[in-house]
Amino acid sequence: MLSRTADNLYWISRYIERAETNARLLEVGARNALMPNIGGGYRNEWDSILQASGTAKAFAEKYGEPVQRNVESHMFFDSDNPSSVATCIERARENGRIVRTALTTQVWDALNTAFQEIREMQRTERSKMPLTDLTDWTTRTTALIRGASLATQLRNDGFDFSNLGHYLERADSTARLLDVKYYVLLPQPGMVGSGLDNYQWSTLLRSMSAHRAFAWAYGGEVTPQKIADFLILNRQSPRSLLTAIEGAELHLNQLARRYGKTTPALSGARSILAELAEAQVSEIFEEGLHEFLTRFIRDIATLGAKVHESYLSGEAR
Amino acid sequence: MNTPVLPEFFNEMFDSGGVRSPYRRLEDWTRDMPAELRSLKQSEAESLFRRIGITFAVYGEGGDPDRLIPFDMFPRVFATDEWRKLERGIKQRARALNAFLTDVYGRGEIVRAGRIPERLVYQNEAFEKAVCGFQPPRGVYSQIVGIDIVRTGPDQFFVLEDNCRTPSGVSYMLENREIMMRMFPQLFQENRIAPVEAYPRILRRTLASVAPLKCTGEPKVVILTPGHFNSAYYEHSFLADMMGVELVEGQDLFVEGDFVWMRTTEGPRKVDVIYRRIDDAFLDPLCFRPDSMLGIPGLMNVYRSGGVNIASAPGAGVADDKAVYCYVPEMVRFYLGEEPLLENVPTWQCGKQDDCKYVLDNLADLVVKEVHGSGGYGMLVGPKATKSEIELFADKIREAPENYIAQPTLALSTCPTFVAEGVAPRHVDLRPYCLVGETVELVPGGLTRVALTDGSLVVNSSQGGGVKDTWVMAD
């Protein structure tokens, strides 16, 4: 298929997944902010959300202090923010319009409807749209688009590129969501393992709609180790880093077989997969969770660049 | 007061004898449709169009790029015998236009015979010196010929203009039909309406039939678009999809060796026929405009050496110029030895001294058009213009007379159309799409454009026109 078409399909999925991540980040922020502000002196919950989304600097320049309403505007509506939900939906739809012929009617319909709806929301008075409505709308809409794609798209190479975008973005997104916890500092070191600490951890699970799944898989107390295991190494978890990388590897492998040609992207995915498959939670905490995640996010970016070179840039020979 | 007396307009549905036969069943249909149902159906149609993504952005107007072109649900209908006559005339004209192009890029017999002024051909802006002496496959220059036709009476059809480059709008012909069939299946059970859905298949066959000599095996056809910001992008992607061919931009193609290649995820793939929807000037920065970002450097060399075919051929525009238009009936006689079946609208060429004088003296009654203009821009509709508009236009004509032609204000036929108050007659025209390759083909239908404003004669979508489904009754 045309490299440019493959690129568009890949980015539709990335933008859709990114929109969902932003909505989930907002949800974490809103829940964290419900906790009484006890000790004081620790970093603002909303700041942690901005840090994790990687847009804290741009936010500070435009809005100054992180107050909820502005964070909502920034992360949901703001077209100046390249990863706001509105920007992501708009770009996904624009990419979809370009490759309209490579999408089924259902997928196009879902994308186009999402775009029309968000434009409508941008015209609606804000007081009529509580944050939960915005985040619910986003998770529902992205699920609809993804569902339409899984249910109706032809299982050809385009499907591989679309899924590749989905899995790479999801790996990045889980890593970033997990990293939020790093930025929400506890008032005192003594509070590690306290009620507040646990509350923050379980909020993270909730934001990924995973707290029940977690309860089934692990039961008992919520501990950082269990959560890290669930979101990084557990194959049953649909958002874990391992699951995401396995998905990416599967589709890269499928492409290599289809085209009868292996690529640096496939070997890149395999080496990340090999590391994760061997990893233990205790080792990750030894390295430092934040350090591990930072390294992982960098590796994913490198893998993305390899996918681009191997297939999407049009330089393939 | 010298308000021109507008002639009686031919109403395609009603004549002195009542309802004309092709429209017979539509009378009950409109009578039985309550106003609420009508507005419900109208909004259903609009949401279908929006969901499918058919939009039409108008050049230079800015605003909403996702603007919908208004769709009128009242179909425009031709009887079988009316259509047969039109079909023969359209095919004849398409053949003559192609013969003319073959001639003027070859020996130029028609010029030597003095049947058309040399200056109109060789000094024409659209005349492409770069392809002189080169014969495209099968001698076809214009594979898709759009011929704009107006009607003034039961048997009076006139050609308003020819489009030999890349006539647009065919996606509306196909989608209007789809939407009508979806909304009013019963109409299609009650009436025998000839289908138009074969168009994409015939287009693909036509394009494959003009593959270059160097092509062996199944020809690889692509559509070349300027990109998704272009107002006709929807149509480009729709046609690519219906034909099952790739939709490419200039950046997706490159020249290497003797061929044109497409950048794919599996490496380069050879391309044989390019149905281009970009202008000549942008095709190849090495040959035409050096600043073009839309084209493919080196494309023209490959074209001239028979490595790829371009549809329509660069230079095809010399045949659809509004000044050359006057000579198309001459072309039919000269190349085909036949009498033209479709008439031209009487046209005054301001480049001729006598004609120019007449035009300037009668501006209030005439329609004046720029020779190279299109889309309803830069034209004067005399009877609708104010005195100062006419004076301004007269100055423009005096400045460069050869840039203008004038035609009488035609009594365009009307077709019943849904308007706020119910059903009312509105003026219509017709653009059928004739396909020329190994064979000459025409699907029974076309795009009917309708001037939605009461009394308006301008049907262009850029000037507030809408579209209708066009029916040809089957035998």
Outline the structure in words.
The complex is a heterodimer of chains A (317) and B (475). Chain A is mostly helical and 317 residues long. Chain A has one domain (3-312). Chain A has helices spanning 3-34, 45-53, 56-63, 68-77, 85-98, 105-123, 131-152, 157-183, 195-207, 211-218, 224-233, 241-259, 264-278, 281-287, 289-312. In chain A, helix 1 (3-34) runs antiparallel to helix 9 (195-207) and helix 2 (45-53) packs antiparallel against helix 8 (157-183). The longest helix of chain A has 32 residues, at 3-34. Chain A is globular and about 60 Å long. By secondary structure, chain B is α+β, with helices and mostly antiparallel strands. Chain B has 2 domains: 14-345 and 410-472, no CATH class; 346-409, Dna Ligase, domain 1, CATH 3.30.1490. Chain B has 13 helices and 23 strands. In chain B, a hairpin with a 2-residue loop joins strand 18 and strand 19. In chain B, helix 2 crosses helix 6. Residues 1-7 and 57-63 of chain B have low confidence and may be disordered. At the A-B interface, helix 1, helix 5 and helix 6 of A face helix 2, helix 9, strand 7 and strand 9 of B.
